[in-house]
Every structure is written in C-alpha cells, then in structure tokens.
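Customer ticket, subject: "Can you confirm the structure for Solute-binding protein family 3/N-terminal domain-containing protein?"

Message body: Hello, I'm evaluating your service for our small team and ran a test protein. I'd like someone to confirm that this is what the system normally returns, since I don't have a reference to compare against.
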Amino acid sequence: MQYVSLIMRLALLLGMLYLSSAFAAANKTSANSPEFSIKSIHIATDIWPGFTEPNEQGAYIDLIKLLFPTGIDFEITYTSFNRTVKMVEEQQADIVLGISFNESSRLYLSARPFDVDQIAVLFKPGRFKFEKSEDFKNYQLVMQRGYNYDIALGISTPSYEVDNIITGVDLVRAGRVDAFLVEKTELEGKLNANELADMELVFIAGEPIFIGFAKNERGAILKAWWDQQFQLYSQNGKLLLWYQQHPGMTLP
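Agent reply: Thanks for trying us out. I re-ran your input and got the following:
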C-alpha cells in the first residue's frame, strides 16, 4: 500500500510539473504570437505637443514603443493630419496615429481605441450661442482639415477647413466664422490661456480614437500584434499602470 501511495504521489507531482510547464509555454506563445518578423515601422503623424513631438518623444510614440517588440527601427514622418491619413491609405507609411472611426474606410483600425479626443467649440463671447448640437446649423463653422468632428456630432451644414489651429483661431477672432470645432488638448498645447483670453472654449463630447494600419500584409501583421499586446497588457494590469503615468491620455 505504501508503494502504491508513493507511485500515486509521484504521478501527481509529475502531473503538476507538466501542467506548470504547459502553462508557461502557453504564456510564452501568447506573448510572442502572431509571428513578428517586421524590423522597421514607418509612422505618419501630425505634431501634437506632449503626444507626438518632433524629437520622436511623446505619449503616443511611447505607447507604440511599449507594445511593439524591442529592437524595431521606427521611422516617423511628421506632416498635417490630413496628409498622414492619405500616406497610410496609399501605403506610403504603415501606421497613422489618432484616427477616429469616421475618418477613413481604407485602413485597418485597431480593435480598441487607445485615447479619446476632447471635441470643443471655440468662439468669441456674445457671437455664438451653443446649447445643443442642432444649434450648429445656424452658424458658420471652421475645422481642421481631416478632422471629421461634424460627422461625429451629426452636423450637416458645410464648414470651412483649415490646415492648422492658428488659422482657425484667427478666423474666429477676425469674425470671418462664428466658431471653431477643435480638439481641446491640442488647442491648449498650441496656445496658452493668455492667447485665448478673448475667447470662450466649451467642451462638447469625447470621441474615441484608434491606430490606423495600411490595408496590406504588413498592416495586417502590425494590427494583429498591436491588438494582441493591447489585450494582453490590459489583462495583466501593465496598460492601466502606464495610463496612470500619462494623465493626458484616456483609456477608453
């Protein structure tokens, strides 16, 4: 009986060792699949202070480097947002940062958003009265080119498009338009409170934004890796910790 008991204990121990080994192997496979053979990634992005700096620093770029394997060579092209989307649509770059669900049907989007745009309206006090989105149809608006905030807010009236925030603010200040639909964080990164002292800025709504990938084999590989790592880091708590260390970003 003692001999049988010893055999059973050994069998149980071997079984536990096998399960432990299998679990470790499964984790290793999960952490490294799908197979990743890409050595360089071309990112196209606008310059957003604190998020995508010209020196290849910023929260968005840091998140990219966190989730992709170490040793990747990142090439970053800085240009207008509208141009960044076209570059990836035309497969001249692999990734565009900060794209909303409504801004392109010619890209793969990450399975989950990674931040939230803070849509706001900028106007001169006394010129613009805003209570609900329907009020926009009574006014002349301006937006940055490629920022489809009108679609996100259900606005059907035509709007001016400008290439940068400074031009949009100048148009409002000169009275050429009634209001500027703008990303609040981006505006405050470009102009300080004194430069906007004669304006009123009102938050309207948050819009989730995604990573956009080129619709080709490379883009599919990059998207699969990003989605898997984003989910893995969400489950193990590393992503929440990272977002807590970057208060300018919102984990949707």
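A couple of notes from the result: Residues 113 and 210 are 4 Å apart (CA to CA). Residues 1-8, 10-33 have pLDDT under 50 and may be disordered. Feel free to reply with more questions.
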